[in-house]
Amino acid sequence: MWASIALATAVVAFFQFCRNVLQLRRNKAKAEKTGLPVFWIPWTTYGSLSFLNPLIVQVASLIPFISKLKCIRLLDREMSWTALREMEDEYGDIFMIVSPYNITIKISNAELISQVATHRTGFIKPTAGYKVVDICGPSILTTEGEAWKRHKTITGSAFSEKSNRLVFEETLKQTAGMINFWQTQDDNNNKVFTVENPAGDYATLSFNVICGAGFGIPQTWPGEDEITISRTAVPGFSNLLPGTGHTMTLGECLQRLLPNILYLFICPLWLLKQSPFKWMSNIYTCYEECINYFDELVEHARTVGESGRETMNLIGLMLKGSEKVPQNTEPSHSKNAQLSKKEITGNAFIFMFAGHETSANGIHFSLLLLAMYPHEQLRTQADIDRIVGDMSPSIWNYQTHMPRLYNSMVGAVLNEQLRLIPAIPNIPKRSVGDQLVQVDGREFTIPENTFVHLNVVGANRNPRNWPKVTSHITGKDNDMADFVPERWLSKDRVIVSEEKVKDGITDELETASFETYSSTSLVKPPNGAYIPFSLGHRACPGRRFAQVEITAVLSAILQKYTVELDVSAWASDEEVAEMTDEEKRELYYEAVIEAEKVIRRSSQIITLKLSKGDKVPLRFVERGSERFAGIV
Ligand code: HEM
Q: How far away, in angstroms, is 376 Cα from ligand 1 center?
């Protein structure tokens, strides 16, 4: 009997192998018609099977001969970040990858990116790949076509200039809370404080901002007196105490669930729930509490209505008219601009998760890069000084200060950080029908059902779209891999000092939005050349929210403090105090090199961030007491 089973298995395997070879040949022939470079791989880079790819790549990396093979490199789903522009520099900004299962086109070319992203029906979002974040229900992020339009129409109006002002004000309050929290930890004091692992605190800050500004559930930092700061938590949603019937706060719940969200996708819920392994049943508990929290949040908004508290009213907007929609558990496919309850909770979850993790990464990497490049930090501080002087952030004004802070080194730093380390390194699309496109005057057809991969890292670092400048750091013929915020500054820029604003002399930046396109605004790269927020109709609706938040945090921190890499792993405070400038420089370079290695190890767990277990401790010192500025 065993012999028959073995024979049958061999026949099936042989049949499958022949089918795969034929399918691969067919896909290869289709791809070659484009005239682009075509590479083949035996497996797929997309779909549920591709979850095995990290394992395959890791095993292959142990075998020297195999690890060098191009088909193995191409299997790496994080290739755009792990190999930066290696393939693009060798084969060009557009190339195709074929497997027996599908065809993929990888694009770092601005002209083609902009065609793909703006062709609403020809290139759609492959929503199957987003199911993993559908845990509370379908949302604007995970739907397409008519359903997506409904989500977009209803939630879109929440992102207004009025909302940006709320974000600005909430962020400044939260930054004060975070600084106060840091100063009161361990051996820290008001003048010098070390933060071992700041990433978690930036995530808390961003979470608090979206809670307060977006959902009307203000959050406080440990030790903050709610009455003094005139922000009272809504019972059940405070990040200091779990709500009734919960074992953790909403913030803890999200922070524990997000890194493990993949398990909800690959593992049946009953298995997670009943698993004898604590880590698995913990994931289930987080999931269950998360669902309950979002149901309670929607219920809270329904009963409280307009609370008198100024917020973006995200849930309120979604609730309007929703009672007419059957409160089923399934997504509503009706064309009416209303959402079902499940869709409302789905969107609430997405806005909370998309609205905090990405911005937190932006704050984290911006401050880290500024600590690594103290001369850039000095220039940023000089701009902040000219714009707000020593005025307390508690009285900064959104309309007056935000445009000038954004169009200064502060905005330049945030744009440069997102250019180098974008939160989302690849944006997936899928072609619907054969699609004729044009690049550099040449036309070709992207075949139907091709998986399109907009390479954010590859596009952002494409030297073709920026003035050619030799790298001062590496000596390469372009400086695309370097942190150079100045590339964003307009040649004509003028910083209007606070005194001039008081005198009533202002420039044109003080218009309806902080993001202006005048001769004194930040440089605007060609369409499709800089895509950390994607572009076209599926671009990030929270772009300005994030820009306001990151600008406000950086400005408020750097107005008073200088951020340094913590060098205590190499030398004690006393040893540093005894060092010559040359010794300090060498010491700091060692810390910079280590920080660079940690950044390069970053990996994408939903968003690109430091790998699990990695951290770069930072030391914040009151300005004037720096130990390395001017030396490094
Ligand atoms: C630095 C911060 C941020 C970055 C880099 C970023 C980046 C992106 C990118 C690249 C996309 C497109 C994803 C895709 O097509 O797969 C996206 C979509 C989205 N983002 Fe953001 N985002 C940021 C902040 C925010 C904030 C603060 C919010 C909300 C408050 C937000 C809400 C969303 C939503 C709802 C979508 C889905 C839009 C759609 O599919 O129509 N994002 N974001």
A: 28
76, part of any domain: yes
If you take atom 1 of ligand 1, which residue's CA is the nearest one? 359
Both 418 and 554 in one domain: the answer is: yes
DSSP label of 155: H
Report whether 540 belongs to an annotated binding site: yes
Helix (H, G, I), strand (E, B) or coil at 175: helix
- Our mutation pick for probing the ligand 1 site, out of 159, 318, 358, 415, counting the most ligand atoms within 8 A of Cβ, is 358
Looking at the predicted structure, is the pLDDT value of residue 455 above 70?
Answer: yes
Same domain, 167 and 73: no
Atom of ligand 1 lying closest to residue 549 CA: 27
Query: Does residue 475 form part of some domain?
Result: yes
d(CA 240, CA 248): 9
Q: Which domain holds residue 121?
A: 2-135
Are 172 and 116 contained in the same domain?
no
Give yes or no: residues 87 and 111 share one domain: yes
Among protein residues, the one whose CA lies closest to atom 16 of ligand 1: 427
Task: Record the tokens describing residue 621, joined without a space.
Answer: 């010192």
Mean pLDDT for 183-206 is 92
* Length, in residues, of the chain: 632
What confidence tens digit (pLDDT) does each residue in 360-394 have? 999 999 999 999 999 999 999 999 999 999 999 99
511 and 629 inside one domain: yes
Asked if residue 542 has its Cβ within 6 Å of ligand 1, the reply is yes
Prediction pTM value:
0.92
In a domain, 89, yes or no: yes
In eight-state DSSP terms, residue 532 is: T
536 Cβ below 6 A of ligand 1: no
Structural domains counted in the chain: 2
pLDDT of residue 107: 98
566 lies in the same domain as 619? yes
What are all long-range contacts of 538-541, with beta carbons under 8 Å and residues at least 24 apart?
A: 538/117, 538/125, 539/117, 540/354, 541/140, 541/152, 541/155, 541/156, 541/159
